[in-house]
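Fold it.
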Amino acid sequence: MVEDKKVKNLPWVEKYRPSTLDELISHEEIISTISKFIDEGQLPHLLFYGPPGTGKTTTILACMRKLYNPREFNSMVLQLNASDDRGIGIVRGQILTFASNKTIFSGGGVKLIILDEADAMTNDAQNALRRIIEKYTDNVRFCIICNYLSKIIPALQSRCTRFRFAPLQPQQILPRLEHVIQEENVTASEDGKQALITLSGGDMRKVLNVLQSTWMAFQNITEENVYTCVGHPQKHDIRNIMSWLLNEENFSDSVEKIQNLKILKGLALQDIITEVHTIVQKTKFPPRVLCLILIKLAEIEERLAAGCNENPQLSALVSIFHTTRDMVTIEN
């Protein structure tokens, strides 16, 4: 009874996390390669990298279940994630101690150390780790997981077999999404499912988190409810914004209308720029004008990422289109 309650209260992203390699929905080549390594007892040190929510941690946890019995997990597997200390002390202490001690389980098989979010490790810690990897290869295998490969020092990269986990394709996400919708008896429209996939950007974790949040908030998964739940601009709002940017003659009126919409709907300028960028790329502007718009949008996005106030950046956004309208008029 207690176990059933625990499962019921789990977030859907954990409740429906694949537990075996066969249940994983993507990266067939990576899964088949790793399965062959395990079957032949030739597992190398692994380096998984790629965007969040693409199955890196799930894959190595499925490997762990294939390698060991549940009773062996505590003695054979050491898992450290972003919440743990990543300084040189943890490498010389906990990791070194675990790697250097042999075990009586699994017929003397190798242990597994999983370093999740390893791109948060300091360079000193990574340099200390490379000697441990070499020295205790007969006793332990490392799996290093990160989002940004460039933050892992080359010395560690060269000691591991690298696998890149690309963002999931919509045709890979949809079957799993429909499975969860069916299991949880969720009411979802086709445009709602498409909105979830569009917003996720290939992140399966984000799909399930937004699905659960929208269901809890509205009890119905539609495009409007999904966008409202995450505070993302609706399509008709973006159409209005583009109309004001391209057609409104008065600069102050354009700024005021967009500002009022932002306040009314609680929109972030970053999200507006992302959607505007998508529409601009689909619109037939003269090449010189298109290049200028994209460069200026990138500059605004950079300033927002650096923490600048949104009000002057909104004015900068409107000024881009007023300037380019003048350019198009002169060229014509």
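The mean pLDDT is 89.
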